């Protein structure tokens, strides 16, 4: 169930109206820049520093969406791509129809909108690190496969200082963390599958899965991510002042989407 497909094609979540009970999960080691958004609509990008596609497509798209909508949700100008052409190249043209119809509640004009980034690690743990994420923020330094793909030691962009950025909480799975891992991995199962399985068999299968994995990245796994990049659009209205439940999920996507298409989804979430 938790096998991670290629991220070259967008893996779309269900329509907004079908996701109203699901909570975005944000649990990190440290906020390296800014702090966790706790008001308005949030677009969370989960990425890895050793992920070329994240740098060729996802991060430029996130930066452009941040530029378009700002932190107050009031910029309604037509989306225009940033100068890095890869922000929209190879995007799935039909992904913009991925489902907010009939579900978005009308939001008041000026509802805050924030793009936030969480750097994670579910593989290549020696490269996907907090330190390499900090280097990206400080000097735009890139590493590993990302460096090879870009053909340079630095990214062709800088992450704006007003975008909140964190490093995921990566935990080794042990007898002490097994219960938590089982609970997080169960979130990835469709409810009809989980509810049909005998509890003892389901528990045993999830324990084996967790022990085989050896570690979990709490934000990545808690949002049932299928790979990187993963996008989670959520409304903080139902979140508390503390805790990992960050708000009601409005839309999820694993893969790439054109700036214009995601801007349309954000506009619907903001009630435009």
What report would you give on this structure?
This protein has 272 residues and is an alpha+beta fold. The chain has helices at 52-69, 130-139, 144-150, 178-186, 191-196, 199-213, 218-222, 259-269, and strands spanning 11-12, 23-25, 28-33, 41-47, 113-119, 165-168, 170-172, 215-217, 230-235, 245-254. The protein is built from 8 helices and 10 strands. The strands form 2 sheets. Strands 1, 2, 3, 4, 5, 6, 9 and 10 form an 8-stranded mixed β-sheet that branches. Strands 7-8 form a two-stranded antiparallel sheet. Helix 1 (52-69) links the parallel strand 4 (41-47) and strand 5 (113-119).
Outline:
The protein is of the alpha+beta class.
Q: What is the residue-averaged pLDDT?
A: 80
| Helical segment count | 8
Task: Please summarize the sheet with the most strands.
Answer: 8 strands, mixed
- Could you estimate the helical fraction of the residues in percent? 25-40%
- The gyration radius over C-alpha positions equals 18 Å
How far is the N terminus from the C terminus? 36 Å
Strand portion: 15-25%
Oligomer: single chain
Computed structural class: alpha+beta
Q: Count the beta strands.
A: 10
List the helices and strands in order. Answer: EEEEHEHHEEHHHEHEEH
Q: Per the principal axes of the C-alpha atoms, what is the gross shape?
A: globular
- Return residue spans where pLDDT drops below 50 for at least 5 consecutive residues: 1-20, 73-104
């Amino acid at each position: 169930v938790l096998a991670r497909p290629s991220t070259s094609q967008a893996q779309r979540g269900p329509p907004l109206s079908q996701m109203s009970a699901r909570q975005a999960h944000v649990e990190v080691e440290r906020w390296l820049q800014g702090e966790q958004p706790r008001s308005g609509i949030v677009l969370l990008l989960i990425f890895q520093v050793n992920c070329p596609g994240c740098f060729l497509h996802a991060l430029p798209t996130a930066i452009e969406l941040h530029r378009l909508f700002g932190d107050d949700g009031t910029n309604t100008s037509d989306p225009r791509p940033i100068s890095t052409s890869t922000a929209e190249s190879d995007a799935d043209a039909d992904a913009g129809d991925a489902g907010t119809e009939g579900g978005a509640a009308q939001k008041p004009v000026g509802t805050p909108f924030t793009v936030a980034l969480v750097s994670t690690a579910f593989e290549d743990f020696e490269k996907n690190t907090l330190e390499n994420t900090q280097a990206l923020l400080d000097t735009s330094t890139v590493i590993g496969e990302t460096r090879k793909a870009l053909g340079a030691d630095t990214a062709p962009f800088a992450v704006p200082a007003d975008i909140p950025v964190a490093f995921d909480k990566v935990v080794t799975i042990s007898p002490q963390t097994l219960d938590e891992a089982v609970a997080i991995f169960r979130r990835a199962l469709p409810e009809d599958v989980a509810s049909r399985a005998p509890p003892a068999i389901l528990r045993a299968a999830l324990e084996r899965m967790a022990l085989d994995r050896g570690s979990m990245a709490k934000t990545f796994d808690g949002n049932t991510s299928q790979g990187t990049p993963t996008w989670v659009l959520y409304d903080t209205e139902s979140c508390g002042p503390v805790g990992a439940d960050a708000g009601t999920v409005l839309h999820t996507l694993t893969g790439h989407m054109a700036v214009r298409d995601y801007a349309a989804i954000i506009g619907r979430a903001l009630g435009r």
